[in-house]
Amino acid sequence: MSEKIQKVLARAGKGSRREMERAIEEGRVSVNDKTVQIGERINPNDILKLDGHIIRFKAEDEIPCRVLIYNKPLSEVSTRNDPEGRKTVFDRLPPLNSGRWVSVGRLDINTTGLMLFTTDGELANRLMHPTHEIEREYAVRVFGEVNDAIIQKLRMGVELEDGPANFTKVRFHGGEGINRWYHVTLAEGRNREVRRMWESQGVQVSRLSRIRYGEIKLPRNLPQGGWAELETKDINYLRKLVDLKPIYMAKAVDANNKIKNIKANRIRKAIRKSELRKTRPASKSRSRKRS
């Protein structure tokens, strides 16, 4: 069955539907080497190109909607490729036979914790759109004097360079002196927003970790650098948040990697193995050069 071209591009992870509509309006999209217009549709056997590059796609009902939860470590960047050669959050994700993993937002290099990845670009783009106002919760360790007046300001709203921002909740979570832990909640995901809000009050963030996205919580037994696959009910919870129809099956890579079956020791072994695989080719190439 034919589908709208912007929908197919969004599902392939190339951007939101609106962004793909703009790409069509700008003449950047073609089907069978013919530039298309808004409203045109595409069939499964057509050749789709964006900016001259072929986009591989399948019909919507042929693609299993999968979602991974990932515990991001420090020093990983949230881009697919890094020009400086740093590790990325995509390096340890399981390979796909078709399609690709699309990240639901980003975390900066010094932030750890919960990230979501999906095979459904449309789901990812809707989850990231600010109109849905999905709650994110962070555990924050701050360095500096924090009093009730500062907490009140952060709840009521502070002015940042890109507009006003506020925490919907701020809860004290232990610590003494000028090193204290708080759990904070907000309903958007602007760049470095949590850090910038505290810094606006003269308080430095020394550690920051995302622990919840909507009702999806970071499992305590999921080690840093490990991933697990969400159950169908959790995927449908996310889809309902952004007005997408539910799915009835989600193809699993490995039943043991389902979120309900997390075994921390096994995941740590898998992380070590993946790191060894990445270092072996480099060591072989060095040995060839020496010879």
Question: How would you explain this protein's 3D organization?
Answer:
This protein is α+β, with helices and mostly antiparallel strands and 291 residues long. The chain has 3 domains: 59 residues, RNA-binding S4 domain (Structural Genomics Hypothetical 15.5 Kd Protein In mrcA-pckA Intergenic Region, Chain A, Roll); 129 residues, Pseudouridine synthase (2-Layer Sandwich); 79 residues, Pseudouridine synthase. Helix content is 26%, strand content 25%. The protein has 7 helices and 17 strands. The strands form 4 sheets. Strands 7, 8, 9, 10, 13, 14, 15, 16 and 17 form a 9-stranded mixed sheet that branches. A 4-stranded antiparallel sheet has the order 3-2-5-6, with no helix packed on it. A two-stranded antiparallel sheet has the order 1-4. Strand 13 and strand 14 form a beta hairpin. Helix 1 crosses helix 2 and helix 1 crosses helix 3. The C terminus is likely disordered.
The total count of helices amounts to 7
Low-confidence segments: 282-291
CATH A-level architecture of the largest domain: 2-Layer Sandwich
For CATH, the homologous superfamily of the largest domain is named as Pseudouridine synthase
Strand proportion, as a percent range, falls in 25-35%
Kindly identify the CATH topology of the largest domain. Answer: Pseudouridine synthase
Overall pLDDT score = 85
The largest sheet, given as strand count, sense and whether it forms a barrel, is: 9 strands, mixed
